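Entry:
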Amino acid sequence: MLKEYIPVLIQVVVALGFAAVALIFSVLLGKKGRRNPTKDSPYECGMLPLGGAQPRFAVKFYLVAMLFILFDLEVVFMYPWAVAYRDFVLSKGPVILWSMLSFIVIVTVGYVYAIKKGVLDWTR
């Protein structure tokens, strides 16, 4: 059983060895740069770096992002589910149909709730 893992172990050793050799060569052959204030300042496409480093985002941005991820994952879940149960549908079709319909109803209720709360309303 251990023989099956030997190729994986060899690949891990080769990958770690390559990373170590690349880092060692970059340290040995790389140029040491002289530091000055101009080089150490952040590059902002020719503009002077004024203001804070991170702009503030409204909470709406994060709510919409979370809703997108939530509904995107639910839709992505449906296709593999349908493919996995393709043969099972022939024998127990109504059970599979009602389980997916209940899932879709729960997702729809969540979506309607989000709309009623005004999460997707950008004018506020």
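Helices lie at 6-29, 37-40, 59-84, 86-116.
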